[in-house]
Fold this sequence. Notes:
Number of strands: 20
Shape: globular
Helix content: 40-55%
CATH superfamily of the largest domain: Winged helix-like DNA-binding domain superfamily/Winged helix DNA-binding domain
Structural class: alpha/beta
CATH topology of the largest domain: Arc Repressor Mutant, subunit A
Strand order of the largest sheet: 2-1-3-6-7
Largest sheet: 5 strands, parallel
Strand content: 15-25%
CATH class of the largest domain: Mainly Alpha
CATH architecture of the largest domain: Orthogonal Bundle
Radius of gyration: 23 Å
Amino acid sequence: xxxxxxxxxxxxxxxxxxxxxxxxxxxxxxxxxxxxxxxxxxxxxxxxxxxxxxxxxxxxxxxxxxxxxxxxxxxxxxxxxxxxxxxxxxxxxxxxxxxxxxxxxxxxxxxxxxxxxxxxxxxxxxxxxxxxxxxxxxxxxxxxxxxxxxxxxxxxxxxxxxxxxxxxxxxxxxxxxxxxxxxxxxxxxxxxxxxxxxxxxxxxxxxxxxxxxxxxxxxxxxxxxxxxxxxxxxxxxxxxxxxxxxxxxxxxxxxxxxxxxxxxxxxxxxxxxxxxxxxxxxxxxxxxxxxxxxxxxxxxxxxxxxxxxxxxxxxxxxxxxxxxxxxxxxxxxxxxxxxxxxxxxxxxxxxxxxxxxxxxxxxxxxxxxxxxxxxxxxxxxxxxxxxxxxxxxxxxxxxxxxxxxxxxxxxxxxxxxxxxxxxxxxx
Length: 427
């Protein structure tokens, strides 16, 4: 068991650490006195339980817990404090327990027996979530089909798979599962039940870490999923013939991705054979686009932002409504769609002037990119072609606030890589 005790009071810290050592002599029990040091530990170690004082010398313990959960969504947070006023906020972040000092060994033993996220055994690491997207959508663990009591739970999993690891918020998931809904309390409350149901089903089968859940948001950890769709879009040789024109055929929400797959397969009839006819895109740091080693100059900031959003979606087909809602979230939909038409024409002209107009694919009210014509550091990072831990997640498209969901996803991915490297180290 790996634990982290965080307390500015050295006497209290020694008591907690001593109890943990008594309970689990062979465990790795780390103790630090500040929130800053706690975040440093969380950046390098997979932690089973964090025992945390709500009032820290250098900040708010609840805020530290929230930051740890971004990196490690299934870490158990246990508050041990003399301050009863933070209990409500603590349970808002789904803390496993809230104990008042002074605690006893019996208190901590009882807490460990009733953790929100049971400590996993090593043999669970051999289990993987397997997903089939081409044809009808199905999910398996070690070849055994998963069954869901609610059909919408399965559809939620399908949507998260379709989003390729993006961290999705409540409204995005509601719109996908109930496109005609007004997104009111009834839909959002039911969605939360589906999220819990999905987490429960996967956890029972030993693959709970395949989904990332944090404060009303959810996404897929692509590193823990075997998927024919992911294999196909990353160009794995044995996946080239797997797509036969059907994608999640029981769900209408898959139609946009099907259109992207179809359009990109059609573009393979005219492959890009010269490296000089490739657009180079840099996403870490400020978003920049180059053609033949020269930066492409966009006449409008929104034109560049539109291209950035298409890059962020990794070549998937995006509807006009989706793009308008993200890029003009403070405008009415009619006004936003009008702005999108103007900006799209400007972007098309900018790329045409560079001789790269064909990188854009437009079909009615949908827009996508021809992936073979783009060399992108972000795409390479998520597909494993380059080391994703060479880049800071916080530097991803720094100038666009809507990219925060992708930053969260990258934080989780890079953390998992560090855990694999450092999991056997001890402080």
